[in-house]
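Methods — Computational structure assignment.
A single polypeptide chain was analysed. Its primary sequence is given first, followed by the predicted tertiary structure written as structure tokens.
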Amino acid sequence: MLVKTFGSAVFGIEATIITVEVNVSQGTKFFLVGLPDNAVKESQQRIESALKYQGYKMPHRKMVINMAPADIRKEGSAYDLTLAIGILAASEQISSENIDKYIIMGELSLDGSLLPIKGVLPIAIKAREEEFKGIILPKQNAREAAIVNDLDVYGVENIIEVIDFFNQTSSLQPTIVDTRKEFFANLNKSDFDFADVRGQENVKRALEIAAAGGHNILMIGPPGAGKTMLAKRIPTILPPLSLREALETTKIHSVAGVLDKETSLITIRPFRSPHHTISDVALVGGGTYPQPGEISLSHNGVLFLDELPEFKRTVLEVLRQPLEDRHITVSRAKFTVDYPASFMLVSSMNPCPCGYYNHPEKECVCTPGIVQKYLNKISGPLLDRIDIHIEVIPVPFSKLSDSKLEEKSEQVRQRVIKAREIQNSRFNGQKEVHCNAQMSSKLLRKFSPITKEGGLLLKNAMEKFGLSARAYDRIIKVSRTIADLENSEDIKTEHLAEAIQYRSLDRENWAG
């Protein structure tokens, strides 16, 4: 008897329907075809054990299982349940009446219980697009899939529940999640607040500008100055995620398998802080079977690189293209995968190996030339792509012990949201451009004209600091954001002057 069941494969962050055709006929051999990897081939032993444990058996006849499309590689153990139900239906041990109406996915334990799988959200979205009635999957993944409307989501703990469901001897209760309620309930949850940070008004101002325009920022300062503390609070001043952004972000985390079991929808902007020993593949994504890297996991959020010069040169250099294009393409011999990577890069570093160059109180013990050698670990092209360089000075005791209340993140966020609303209006109709940092050179000339006085100021700055053409563009983008924060239609000279002073590392005498 020939029976078809349906599963799904995920490539990038999009799913493809996989048709599992099971044919049981006269003979004794078992054939599994359709480009399965080793994990899929090993499913035979898991399925046999699970069925035996539950009082069913593998048919001792010839079985041919085809996973179509046959030219797409099938990976992982998520097809165990799809194959098992197909085998039971084809051998007439269960009813096959409604099997083709559902996507069935799950990894089987030897006792028939189900283990969670990755990439559930894109699979559920694809199931709705293909007009399946529902999806049957492990209970741990049910809430994640249930944020997709107009789709029956059944979370099960054991294969016997699925068997009884298709035999109509018992029913399954669908998992229901109110997507909008879930989204708005957790939208502003955060353990951090700018009010926790004493002093550092100039750095807070730079971070506000960076958040308002989506600009990349580098903080330079001695140990203990508060660089990491400030970086962790940047998501609290960024505009809240839209529902579309939340779904897109959740899809990436679902595919990577890093979504929390209790989380059905990511509602706060991601903050990723990889260790400096990370490899280039782990950062940008890839591998034999490509997976999203840290830059994609920080999509719509913040990627924080602490101690920037300690990262390997090759790792930092692979960041250059994603910073410009806001997506990463992972190419292999037989296929290509695209992952979104629109993130705000926040980085920090000590000014020298000992950490105390330019410190107001402690003396730097680095030998001559060491400071410049340390800075040279970061290439010029990468520095050019960082819009704002800001020096972080240690907070004096008088500030630390001051009982004065600092400005809360919510107050800063309101100003950032207003500036973003101006930018959304400005870029209405522009594809993939939502903030000033994403402007192309053409848009820059259109929306950021500068006065004659401003042009003269920029000319002098470029000649003095030896700025590149890219740095010139960055200064104008930052000044455009400063003008937006002040609700000014024109870029004034003071806006340009403030933007120029955020290019600390471009100064000729900065490292002595």
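Note: The longest strand covers residues 14-25.
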